[in-house]
Write the structure tokens for this entry.
Amino acid sequence: MTDTDPTGCRTTRSTRSCTSASIAERTQEEDAVDGILVEKREETFIHREKHEVEFIDIPESPSPVGSIPSNTRASLGKARRKLSVVSTNALVDGIHDIRLDETLNVDKQKGSVLPCLVSAYAGKSQKGFAPYHRRKKNQDALIMAEEPHTSTLFFCVLDGHGEFGELVSGFFQREMARNLFAHDHFEQDPRRAVIEVIAALESALVQDRRIDTAFSGTTLTAVLLRGDRVLVFNVGDSRVTVALHDAPNTADASVSSTSRESSMPMKKETLACTPSKARGLSFLSRRSLSLSTASNLPSPPTPPLRSIRLSIDHKPDVAAEKARILAANGRVFAVRYDDGVDGPARVWLKDLDVPGLAMSRSLGDVVAHTVGVSSEPEVFEYTLDSARDVFLVLATDGLWEFMSDAEVVRMVGVAKDPQEAVETLIKEANTRWLKEEQVVDDTTVCVAFLGEWRK
């Protein structure tokens, strides 16, 4: 039997075809295709005529995870901020079907050859740590892709959650860029192309019985750069910020929302960034420090910088987001645990304590979407100025949970290149997680230098 869903995808029990998809045969090995950094996971796809996609060789989904034993809970301390909550307050973070996985360290630095304001960029996705789950999987994912025909750069970070979060984020990681670049409207209307590809991929994902999305999903935060135009697409609580010169003779910067609804005003922060005061210096790599000492060269001067946030964190307790959830018969409240520590605000069904999702927008999460959790991206537009703007930072909330935009900009401002900036941020984020929560969240960071910054 064949059906047509609202996104235009034709589906059967074993195949799915999307007009926007052009999916090449791939293996389970890690590789880079057409500048798209990908990590192969359990699923295998094969190209068919008319872009039909058949899912093959995918292991059956394991049974649902049970609750953590009470003697283990006692050792968790405050380590609850990043866990999904299901019935009876069980904490779930991909605990079932544990096996040893290598840490995903996808990092790349290059100078862009495209005619845009990005001069160099780097990114990395690093697996976190949990004492009760030492072989956890990295549920984050990273995309850094170039499309030469339209001179477009596309960056995207994904933060999977739930028992099968790494499968959900991995699905979008593999398919997002290649489907976007093949979209009929990508050249003339990239905003429409991104929105339609996200919708089509999510529809295909939730219809696939081999990836259980009832209580698993992912955030998606993407930046599309073409010339001096920046489009930001956000679903969830990852974040984008831009650093700019804080000088009276620079042009004013503004961010415009092109979404149907905006959750809250943009946040602006002003800071002074100098090498002598930037705490990020203490987290530079040993190699970087030794090279700097050997060369006996002073650190490059860093003018005062300020930051403008280019996205909004979609949390259940944000007024507009909460109103939508309540209107759909959902509930929003934080869980208080036995030790009296409250977690973040979460989304619940009207009569059941599930799913306990700690964000108000996501992809997947079928149960949460029945009570107002949305998959609609919030879109923002920003115009770059080469005399004003110096770098962009895109990261999952593993970075932002305990670091402000101002602190992040300060650390990047003293780095000699994007790769050093990425390593510095991840190291500092990990340190703060261990201090505050006794766990470390998966952390994905992408940094892009603009114009003449650090040249």
